[in-house]
Request: fold
Amino acid sequence: MSNLKKILINKKGKTCKSVWFMRQAGRYLPEFRKIRSQNKNFIDLCLNSQLSSEITLQPIKRFNLDSAIIFSDILMVPYALGQQVNFIKNEGPNLSKFNIERFLDMSEREFSQKLNPVYKAIEITRKNLDKKKTLISFIGAPWTLMVYMLNIKSSKAHINLEKLEKKSTDINKILNKLINFLCIHINNQISAGAEVVQIFDSWAGLIPIKNITDYCFIPNAKLVDFCRKNKIPNICFPRGIKKKYEEFNKIVKSDGISLDYEIDPEWAKSNLKDVVLQGGLDPKILLKSEKEMLEGATKYIHIFKDIPYVFNLGHGLLPETDPDRVKKLIEFYRNY
Ligand code: 1CP
Reply:
């Protein structure tokens, strides 16, 4: 069994070490940028199973990380549910107008068929990945997907509350249908050979506080319940919810919880119980001096040294990160 699975399932933290990074395959790697420059359409690149598998393995070849995360995107789900998804340079994703009737009508068969290349990429990758390493699959949590699908984000750190209120009668319908499809997507990825699922609620921090139970805790809990029933090791990432991490953990009860860089690691250690902790280190620290980076890493390694902990960051690696820094950080952790 791979170390990540041992940690998540058996909570064997003291004897097992495991390191991987969010966004480890992608924008900061020259070998990714080369492939990307030849493949202008990002969705098509994600649907190219051979290339997706190759990109997934790039950081493993370079750094010998303990886990690979499949190269895909959370927005493949809205794509498979009938929305056009475009990535605009320096602006981010742009989705075509959401049509609720079409969305509620979508069949499970068509959904799975459209995502078949992702499952194929998982199959290819599993065959080519060292048996001791974990292949991680992922999904976006319902709220985070809905933010993109309904286009309710007005700037980097705000949502358009008026737009949200206008859609309030549809929201429960949308979240429930998404939960249904996300369970199918998890199941298909695991059947194809992935062993762990990470649930990214990257925009959980934008939920109005009165809605956090309905839009964040309950949807994540339903997905984790599905994983538990099917014995699928799972990690949640409710980014930006601050001290609500504690309530999230009590309600959702995932196997692992990924800390964002705003969470104080000492607070997390004292308040997040019966769960494997992951990450936390600010990805910006990789842009600072080597000394600062290693001091930052030491703090996290030291605090979590005697509990089950997966070494990772508090969000994804930034595009401007120097790959040699990533290598240094991994070596430092392994030799600590
Ligand atoms: O333009 C490019 O070259 C594409 C950049 C890129 C890449 C490399 C995007 C666009 N997505 C990805 C891959 C990706 N996305 C992976 C697999 C690679 C890996 O992790 O190693 C994963 C797990 C994701 C997940 C993802 N996509 C999230 C959740 C994680 C997080 O960063 O919070 C979110 C919110 C997205 C949406 C998305 N996809 C891409 C962009 C530019 C965005 C908007 C958010 C952002 O700017 O990060």
About this structure: Residues 22-27, 36, 42, 69, 71-75, 87, 92-93, 138, 200, 202, 316 surround coproporphyrinogen I (CB under 6 Å). The chain has a mean pLDDT of 96. The first strand starts at residue 67 and ends at 69. The chain has one domain: 21-275.
